Amino acid sequence: MKSRILLIAAALAVSCTSIRTPDIARITDGATRTNCSWGHVELQPGEEKTLCEIKGPGALTYFYITDGPEFITDEALVLRFYWDGNDFPSVNVPAADFFGSIAGRPVDWHSKYLAVHHNSHQCYFPMPFSKGARIAIANDSPRLYSHDVAYNFDFVQDKAYRWEKSRFHAFYNRSNPTGGMHTILDVAGHGQYVGNILHVYSESWRWWGEGDTDFLLDGQPLKHTPGTEDEYGSCFDLGLGFNHGVCGYIEGGNADSSARWGVNYHGHNRMFRYYDANPVRFRKGLKVTIQNQYCAPGTEYDFSGQQKAGDDYTSVAYFYLDKAQKVDLMPYEERTAESLATEY
Fold first, then answer.
1. CA 136 – CA 246 distance, rounded (Å)
2. How far apart are the C-alpha atoms of 60 and 63, rounded to whole Å?
3. pLDDT digits (tens, 9 = 90+) for 214-256
4. Topology of domain 29-164, per CATH?
5. DSSP characters for 56-116?
6. What single-letter DSSP state applies at residue 160?
7. Distance (Å, whole) CA 165 – CA 337
8. Do 208 and 202 touch, CB atoms closer than 8 A?
9. Residue 10 — pLDDT band, cuts 50, 70, 90?
């Protein structure tokens, strides 16, 4: 009888320890810290300014940044994150674009990890580090950057993060024009891809989103979705816009009774997707591409009639690797060049 009681107690102990306490309810040995400031900032061409520097193991849990009434519409401003004392950035993205305000064009939107409201650009991606972190802004333009900047970084200092390997990264890319294909991410290493922001500028009145999203995962080709709308949470075109926690179409889709489905996609289009419950895990590397295609006249339902398009695509990819890697940034002149999108 005694042995049966011990066995039952042991089974209950195992079952209880297998239940994972949600982060918001978990009591740990960590201590929350914050770093906030505001004031006028001037950055000469090529100059960098550290906003927040953290020593020891921990994790960044939230931050916001703004630089005035027209928040970071100045494309000269670059956001950089350095992990564990490295002299290279693992986040190296135009500040506006990091939050989805592509090319300095903000729109209000919200999601589980990023949000823009009025002048506040907010981020909730968890970002662990084992030795320290440094967050900086830089001016990579040939002119002076001069704005009033305010920010706040919340982080936890906790020795438990000493053994955490995961490091947050962000990568910017623009295809101007695409020539039918845009690369969202191409990275070697062990990690997981957790989402992207995609902006499409089109000079055409046709639907440009017939393109597939493809993964080359550890050298193996995988078809993820058969059309742009499928990847970003819709089907048979994107419609007039929507905004959910993990996917959304937050700009574009103008009503037009003359267009197929009553919607036209001429001009600016912006969408996002997080791979939250379905993270894209890889051990050797991952390449993510999206096709930019349209159906030739009279072939709307005949996919053999798809043609390569020449729209202007810009994206920011968010991903984690098991160690920090350097992320390069496209030169300022290429990021800000006039759009070469073609009409078709």
1. 27
2. 8
3. 999 999 999 999 999 999 999 988 988 899 999 999 999 888 8
4. Jelly Rolls (2.60.120)
5. SSEEEEEEEEE-STTTT--TTEEEEEEETT-SS-SEEEEHHHHTT-GGG----EE-SSEEE
6. G
7. 38
8. yes
9. very low
The answer regarding whether domain 169-329 maps to CATH 3.40.50.1820 reads no
In the chain, list all ranges with CATH 2.60.120.1390. Answer: 29-164, 169-329
Place 281 in a pLDDT band, splitting at 50, 70 and 90: very high
Nearest residue to 66 (alpha-carbon basis) of 99, 43, 34, 91: 99
Q: What CA–CA distance (Å, rounded) separates 277 from 297?
A: 39
Other C-beta atoms closer than 10 Å to the C-beta of 56 total 14
List the structure tokens of 111. 């999601």
- Produce one character per residue of 275-309: b if its CB has 16 or more CB atoms within 10 Å, e if not: beeeebebeebbbbbbbbbbbeeeeeeeeeebeeb
Percent of the chain with pLDDT over 90: 76
For residue 138, give every residue at least 6 positions away whose Cβ sits within 8 Å of its Cβ, in sequence order, or none: 43, 46, 47, 48, 49, 77, 78, 80
Of 215, 182, 180, residue with least CA distance to 198:
182
CA–CA distance from 198 to each of 53, 101, 212 (Å)?
30, 10, 14
Residues 10-39, buried b or exposed e (16+ Cβ, 10 A)?
A: eeeeeeeeeeeeeeeeeeeebeeeebeeee
Q: What is the pTM of this model?
A: 0.91
